[in-house]
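Case study 2.
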Amino acid sequence: MKLYYSTGACSLSVRITLLESGLPFEAVLASTKTHQLEDGTDYYTINPKGYVPLLEFDNGERLTEVAAIQQYIADQVPAKNLAPANGTMPRYRLQEWLTFIGTELHKAYGPLFNPNASDEVKNGAKSRINGRLAYVNEQLAGKSYLLGDYSVADNYLFVVLNWSGRVGIELAPYPNITAYMARMLARPAVQAALKAEGLIK
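Prediction:
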């Protein structure tokens, strides 16, 4: 398999999941700024959407979108318990979290990375994010991970929350989140993924 990624982007969550899974993969850098691979290939010829992640299988088939890719990987290695079994309420809770992270958190950070966004737009985004963080903090009360047990949703949440320091969002007011981030950072696969992308030494 090939994982097309951009440094520190949401594709990092897929890299973490792949490392947790033990499945072999090759990581291919696809810059979200130039939309080119390192060999000059136009990334749009691989993914017309132009963004990461994209998982390419050995037969040439391709899968996009974090929520879909995360669940695909988890289902390849059921013994690793990266996701609850299909058809169970815990699996739908996983999908609930993946959807929330993607639509309510991930997208909310977008304006904060846009140099052309006005202060009014950025302040509005921060207000929305802080409202979502208060909800997440509440949901983590008394739990080590989102579902209680670790799952692929935690990888996605960790990566999105990890952007906070770069865009002026303080996590300190949310003690359950800060404890959660420390737990996630202690996972060997998280450490390995961050090192692979040059985000930590």
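The first helix runs from residue 11 to 21.
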